[in-house]
TrEMBL record:
This is Phosphoesterase. Residues 59-171 form the Phosphatidic acid phosphatase type 2/haloperoxidase domain. GO terms for cellular component: plasma membrane. It is found in: Cell membrane.
Amino acid sequence: MLADLRAVDGALYAAVAATPTPALDRGLRRLSHAADHSKISFTVAAGLALAGGRRARTAALVGVGAIAVASASANLLGKRLVRRRRPDREAARVTVARHVPMPSSASFPSGHTASAVAFATAVGVVLPPASVPLSLLAWAVGYSRVHTGVHYPGDVAGGALLGVASAGVSLAGARAWARRAEIH
C-alpha cells in the first residue's frame, strides 16, 4: 500500500511539474519564498497584536505558539525520523522559472505547510473571521511548495495534518494557562 501511495504522490508531483502555468510561476515562487521562516504568519500576527483588541492579541499569541509547535515537530522530529529525499525536479522537468533554492533538509513533512496551517487553524479558532483568508493562504503556501518543485504533495498533506495537530496543542495550552490564571 505504501508503494502505491508513493506512486500516486510521484504522479501528482509530475503532473504539476508538467503543467505549464507561466502566469502563476512568479507569484507562487514569491509566495514560497515569503513563507520562509513563517515571515507571512509573523507579519499577520504582528498586525493582529498591534491593531486588534484583546481577542486579536490572543489569536496572535496562540497562532505564534502553534507555529513554534509545528516548526519544532516538523524540523526537529518529522524530517529526522522519516528522512524522505527531496524530489528530483530536473528529472520531473520543473521549469526553472518556478525554482526556489532546494532545501538541504529532508522532504517529509513540509515545514512551510505545517507552520502555515498551524497558524491559520489556531488563529481561526480564536478569531473566526480570519479563518477563511488564513486557510486559503495556508493552502496556497502548501501548493507553492509542490509548484516550485521542493516537495511532493504527500509532504504537504503530512505538513497540513501536523499543522492542525500543532494548533490543537497550542490552543489546549492557552486554555490551560487561562484556567490557571483564573484560579490564581
